[in-house]
Amino acid sequence: MPPVVRFAPSPTGRIHIGNVRTALINFLFVTKDRGRFILRFDDTDVARSKQEYAEAIEEDLKWLGIAPDLIVHQSKRFPLYDAAAAKLRGVGRLYPCYETAEELERRRKRQQARGLPPIYDRAALTLTEADRAALEAAGRRPHWRFLLDHVVVHWDDLVRGASHIDCASLSDPVLVREDGTYLYTLPSVVDDLDLEISHIIRGEDHVTNTAVQIQLFEALGGANAAPVFGHHNLLTTASGEGLSKRSGALSIGTLREEGIEPLAVAACAVLTGTSDSVHPVQSLDELAADFDFSHVSRNQARFDPAELKTLSARTLHQMSFAAAAGRLALAGISGPNAEAFWFAVRGNLETFGDVAIWWAVVEGTIAPAIEDADFIAAARALLPAEPWNQTTWAEWTNLLKTQTNRKGRALYHPLRLALTGREQGPELAALLPLIGRAKAEARLSGRAA
Ligand SMILES: Nc1ncnc2c1ncn2[C@@H]1O[C@H](COP(=O)(O)OP(=O)(O)OP(=O)(O)O)[C@@H](O)[C@H]1O
User: Where is the Aminoacyl-tRNA synthetase class I anticodon-binding domain (predicted)?
Assistant: First the structure.
């Protein structure tokens, strides 16, 4: 059976590089085996979730090359959660509790003072029908806890290997609040069962939820209903701080606005914190082919925006024309010279937007900078006849070298300034035939052309 995975963000902000690590690792995992990738919005918290964030997350994933096979919103699936809660109540695994937050806090402090672990003491289980009726008559509304089995839960984690949690060391988790709303745990498991998720791959911020969830999977779906789990390390900022959608740090939207390449974001998000080097890639398929859970480190990994910027430029430097052509066309760069143009300039790009500068140099009008008028006049007089090709530059400058005795920077720099109006740039051997003789001659005469 091909794997089915999900990426389950809460739509409470723009996704950041850490969220994208999770999304991509899931996506790469199923890409290899032709499985399904489900985007599930954990939007049961209606106060904090926003449709505009959900749309932005879809947009950001699309920009990265992730096309979900299915998109679901938890806010539209409440009847499923109600049915699951009813089933748990029916088998005695969901019980009402009436303690207030203050009472629970006092109890925790007493336990700590006596050197006991601060876990819920299950006092509510001893309430009689009459006790409950009295509490409700006094205006108390229950919250509902899942009755854990006090056993050690084991799972074989895709990243962390053999893992276990002793559920006797945990409080029975609250699944339903006083106001009837659900905490994250129950809807998550209900949907994973309903959508037949085979692998839950997520950040290690969720490790502590796993044992509870495995018990819930079994309570709702029977023995062995739990999927395979994998918890990868988290990314932090360069100074080691955690990332949060709500703070907006290192959001994909910002990186995109800065002109960072999506494939560079993907490579950085996936390869940082693994034993593989962070290197440019040509496609998500290439990343997928090389991805291996055993390469993922157990430690948190720092994400360095400076490294991403360099990687983005390196990604452009090796991008094929086929990959660039659509975007070049959108920037108005097409026609018979487009491919030669791309190969001439890609090695000099910091961001893709820089193509406009060089397209103006070869196709538009620029103001030349004449540094050494006599030399430039001599160069103009020696311009070869067309047709021009990649060897024209060498022929022309060799001739100039012998005639003027110039070499190195003194020979090349004034020519570059006159022909491109810029101090630096792509190899002139590649640019010159694209500029063409008419423009070259005009620029060497000091005219804008
Ligand atoms: N820093 C991180 N590095 C890697 N994965 C992360 C990081 N932060 C969150 N994730 C993963 O992203 C997925 C979506 O998580 P979630 O929507 O809770 O994001 P969040 O950034 O923690 O959210 P919020 O700031 O809204 O609390 C989860 O699987 C989570 O493990």
Answer: 377-445
